[in-house]
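User: Some background: our group keeps a shared notebook of sequences we're curious about, and every so often someone picks one and asks for a predicted structure to add to the entry. Today it's my turn. The entry only has the sequence so far, pasted here. Could you supply the structure so I can complete it?
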Amino acid sequence: MQHPHAATDPFLTFRNVKKTYDQQSLVVKDFNLDVNKGEFVTLLGPSGSGKTTVLMMLAGFENVTSG
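Assistant: Of course. Here's the predicted structure to add to the notebook entry:
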């Protein structure tokens, strides 16, 4: 059962997040994510798909390029 405010008040939101290195190497493009309080999130994907970069941005260890 979802929290009554879950749909309107996400705990964390990423919209159209983009991450590049050296202005050329695009590693994350148009990443969107809403995480509601109490939710558990898993990132799945092949090696080199940007999972670690997304986690580093979510934790604040990497800055987003835009978004």
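Suggested note for the entry: The chain has one domain: 12-59. The chain has a mean pLDDT of 89.
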